[in-house]
Amino acid sequence: MKKTILLSLLWSFCISNTFCQPMSGNEIIKAANEQLDEGLTELMRFLEIPNIGSVEEDVANNLKWCINRFQKLNFSTRVITTEGAPLLFAEKTVTKDKKTILFYLQIDGQPVDNTEWDQPHPFSPVIKKKDVNGSWSMIDRNTEKILDHEWRVFGRSASDSKGPAMAFITALDIFKQRSMQAEFNIKVIMDFQEELGSPTLASAVERHGDLLRADMVLIMDGTRHISNWPTLTYGARGIATATIDIFGPKSPLHSGQYGNYAPNPVFEASRFIASLKDEKGRVMIKGFYDGITLTETDKIALNSLPENEDSLKIRLGIAESDQVGGSYQESLQYPSLNIRGLRSAWVDKEVRTIIPDQVKIELDMRLVPETPGERMINLLEEHLRIQGYHLVDSIPTDLERRSYPKLASLRYRLGSQPFRTEMDSETGDFLNRAMQTVFGSKVVNMRTTGGSQPIAPFVRTLNVPAVSIRIPNPDNNIHAPNENLRVGNFLEGIMMCLAILNEPL
Questions:
Q1: In angstroms, rounded to a whole number, what is the distance separating the alpha carbons of residues 36 and 409?
Q2: CA geometry: angle at 202 spanning 197 and 203, to 5°?
Q3: Beta partners for 91?
Q4: Residue 328 counted as domain residue
Q5: Cα(292)–Cα(284) distance, rounded to whole angstroms?
């Protein structure tokens, strides 16, 4: 009886307390602005922790930081051990009969070359403003204390993806300060090796399916649409990479003594490369696009997004685009083949008059759900054979060199798998309701992104929809030197996360 009365009093108090009521759009905007300075300061401290996923010490330091931070938010935490780097799981349960959202946070970043950054160190984040001449200069927060939304935080992982993670954490801080809680259970999984392809994530999801089970997965990762409007992306392409070595003579040869006699493998490699694509940019490997269809409804939805092809070409510095799809958005619905690196002999000051012994071709293929990686690698291998190549496992033997005029090796790696969630769904409706509370009609819904995310294990193993919540500005130099996050995007990211936490599910 006493317990019932106490619960009744607590419920009455919550109803009368405005902090327990859902926030209006204006309240979300006000709360995010009030918390911006503190959230940005903490983001800068978070970015100071190096986070290269292949460095054990980096993983350990970031794991420790995340454990402490989520425990301060009154989440229970659990380290999930794997055959490689650990994962971190955090949870806050409202009640078991409520639905659950699993948030995926990427904590690691790409490797850095200190000499290419326009600041003391990539892990010493700085805030910069754009000068009238278009260059960026560092600012002193002690003298310029009023935050300008056009300023940017420069540092590794500012946009990919500690910035989005901190926007989510800041939103959770606001809820805690206001004694609010979401009307759904919250689970969080933190990945410390996403940039390495999340090698242990799939097996961990299979082993811990009950722990990770949720009604949807929201991915705090990825760049916004080129309009820089708040973006929801319902799928991602997967990735497969390959290295092809095309062999020439046993060792580099003097071009004067052996030119016109010993074939140069660069010319063979050039003919092979030319066989991969036609002049319109379409891949000519047999079967490469099999199984992919876009309905007229799909095309209408894709081409309704706020983007201008002419402006995009100007921004990219190209005169014409590849003709794989009828537009930029349509092109993302197909698999792509890219030569990401090419090497043979020496150039510039080290150039010498030789016939090279070998050509190395590095490729990546972005995949869609209709084109699994295994199939695409098999098609690439068959294409090599069709072009007349005999494939070897490593360096050709003398017998193989005498027997086959065209020799090559193929090595490959299958990375993240593609996934796609239906836009017209309960998940899509929930997220759009939340976003429209703050941003009205200025919300972009994208069918898929061109990049890759390791979310397919959740979609396939747990059978749940997944959507990416896009926060960083599209011109953020992702993976490159001078990676950055616009302050205004970080602010809107806090608003996006608040809107989701605030929306009944």
A1: 53
A2: 125
A3: 76, 187
A4: no
A5: 15
Q: Is residue 326 part of a domain?
A: no
Neighbours of 291 (CB within 10 A): 11
What are residue 25's phi and psi, to 5 degrees? -60, -40
Secondary structure (H, E, C), 441-491 = CCCEEECCECCCCCCHHHHHHCCCCEEEEECCCCCCCCCCCCCEEEHHHHH
Contact (CB, 8 A) for 366 and 239 = yes
3-state SS, one letter per residue, for 179-234: CCCCCCEEEEEEECCHHHCCCCHHHHHHHCHHHHCCCEEEEECCCCCCCCCCEEEC
Residue 4's SS3 state is helix
Q: Whole-model pTM? A: 0.85
Handedness of CA 457, 459, 462, 468 (dihedral sign): positive
CA neighbor of 357 nearest in space, from 440, 247, 439: 247
Considering its fold, how many domains does the chain have in total?
A: 2
CATH number at residue 146: 3.40.630.10
Domain membership of residue 406 (yes or no) is yes
CA angle 221, 43, 454 (to 5 degrees): 20
**Where among 373, 395, 414 does a domain terminate?**
414
Residue that finishes a domain, picked among 395, 414, 433 = 414
Q: Given phi > 0 = left and psi -120 to 50 = alpha, else beta, which region is 122?
A: alpha
Place of tokens 């933190």: 190
Q: Which residues pair with 127 in a beta bridge?
A: 153
**243 has which bridge partners?**
362, 411
Contact between 338 and 223 (Cβ < 8 Å): no
For tokens 């916004």, the residue is: 224
Torsion of CA 24, 26, 32, 37, to 10 degrees: -160
**Domain of residue 391, residue span:** 238-292+334-414
pLDDT tens sequence for the chain (505 residues)? 444 444 444 444 444 444 468 899 999 999 999 999 999 999 999 999 999 999 999 999 999 999 999 999 999 999 999 999 999 999 999 888 899 999 999 999 999 999 999 999 999 999 999 999 999 999 988 888 789 999 999 999 999 999 999 999 999 999 999 999 999 999 999 999 999 989 999 999 999 999 999 999 999 999 999 999 999 999 999 999 999 999 999 999 999 999 999 999 999 999 999 999 999 999 999 999 999 999 888 888 888 888 888 988 998 899 999 999 989 999 999 999 999 999 999 999 999 999 999 999 999 999 999 999 999 999 999 999 999 999 999 999 999 999 999 999 999 999 888 999 989 899 999 999 999 999 999 999 999 988 788 888 888 889 999 999 999 999 999 999 999 999 999 999 999 999 999 999 8
Question: What would the two tokens of residue 200 be?
Answer: 């242990």
Same domain, 73 and 37: yes
